[in-house]
Design brief:
100 residues, mainly alpha
């Protein structure tokens, strides 16, 4: 009979807060590391995809770059100068002899 708990007794459960915070922080670290790991996986996956694209289309990309560079040099050398820059400053002081 002494082993039974009376019905009107409130049970108080002791909660070990240290263990609770340790478990929750361990779970949060696992989630954070997984999230950061997924970000790095995505970035490196995009990098690898870009490098595979360059590997497959290397000659086309190199030809387009060289052609653009050559056209840019040709246009730059054969254009007329439309911009004139004057580095001499003019004074804006107006002297008034009748002002005083």
């Amino acid at each position: 009979m002494n082993d039974q708990i009376p019905k009107n007794t409130i049970l108080l459960m002791r909660l070990d807060l240290g263990q609770l915070f340790q478990n929750s922080s361990a779970m949060a670290l696992k989630i954070n590391f997984a999230f950061i790991g997924d970000i790095f996986k995505g970035v490196f996956n995009l990098l690898i995809l870009f490098l595979v694209f360059l590997q497959k289309t290397y000659y086309k990309v190199a030809d387009a770059g060289f052609l653009g560079y050559a056209i840019g040099i040709y246009v730059d050398l054969n254009k007329d100068s439309r911009i004139f820059i004057n580095m001499v400053g003019n004074p804006t002081l107006i002297v008034c002899s009748n002002c005083i």
